[in-house]
Amino acid sequence: MPSLRLKVALAFSGATIVLLLAQALGVRALAEAQEERLLDAVIADDMAAQLRNWAANPAALPPVDPALGLRFSQDGGARLRPPAALAGLADGVHEVVLDGRELHVAVARLGKERVLRLYDFSMLEHRFKDAIGMLMAGTGGFALLTIWLGFALSGLLVRQVAGLARQVRALRAGSTDAINPGRYDEREVVELADTVNDYHRRMADMVERERAFTGNVSHELRTPLTAIRTSCELLEQDPGLSAKSRTRLGQIESAAAGMQAMAESLLALARAQPAGAAEPVALAAAIRTALERCAARPGVSALAVTVDVPETLRVRAHGHALAIVLSNLIENAAAHARAGQLRFLVENGALVVADDGAGIAPDALAQVFTRFYQAPGGAHGHGIGLAMVGAICAHYGWTVGIASAPGAGTRVSLALPGLAEPETLHENFTNA
Question: pLDDT by residue (tens digit) across 70-91?
């Protein structure tokens, strides 16, 4: 992308060069016109003087040229033999080319006779052309100088904008110092600095409010979830609790723990902070755990699930974030497959979640990761699940893609650290 300085330099140089060329061409055209007028005036004066002299002294009349059939004389230059075609010229001054030279011919009447007089200004013409050539060469030199001056002056013109850009980059890098408008003396740059400062202040306030809000939400969610888990632990110590109740109690505690981990992951995602360090995760076990947590969700228990993932396969990922992604993919498959097949497999270096459901229309496929988007005629939902999957993948540097067609089911590909890069599943493949 060209810089502002280069654009200013090109604009300044281009405008100046156009003006120089227009001026040079105008001077050339004007000089040629003035030259012709001057030569015509000189020839007219000389011819009038000759006619008066010949009228006063007929013996001084030039001889009749046998080729022309009229009296012929020449003023200056090497003697030329005039061609017979000159005899057909009308009275007046004419410009002709003889032997590669531009010549002027004056034809006039003296009594009953016609007199033709030839003027050779070729030397003057050559000097004039040399002068015009020097003018055009000088214009070219000035054009080159203008380019250099334009680039040099543009640096002075945009230096304050460049300084402001450096300070804005410092703000983006994390500097908390506001831009000082007093450093600039150009009104537009000062206004831009004030605008950037105002925008930066508002953004900082918004981020601070967001952090306070997420902190409050984290606290408010953590407190009841901790109370639920604590109550479950206390109830487990009751010796009179039946085995069935203990199983239910374990499910409650597991769900509370999952909710607490999910809340922490989502809040970290909202704050754009990593939710703990990545760790080796057994992929098959993570899939089964996600299936167990989603077992009570509508449609999940009716799926015929196949997990074709090696038990020894491990990936480096944030476990809670991966659990959220897998849970949303399972729920999405359950909503579309409707008691169909759901298969997990590793293919082309990626985890593939495939169902044999109704599929997704091509025009809706490109928008499935858009928040709150719901395909026309699709399953009921809020359009949040796949949007959350896309956001988590973007945050952790994973790659997610989706391929589908109406009536052909849906295949979601998830590339995780530890797996090879997946091949493209669809032209709408999303690089998160």
Answer: 888 888 666 777 888 888 888 8
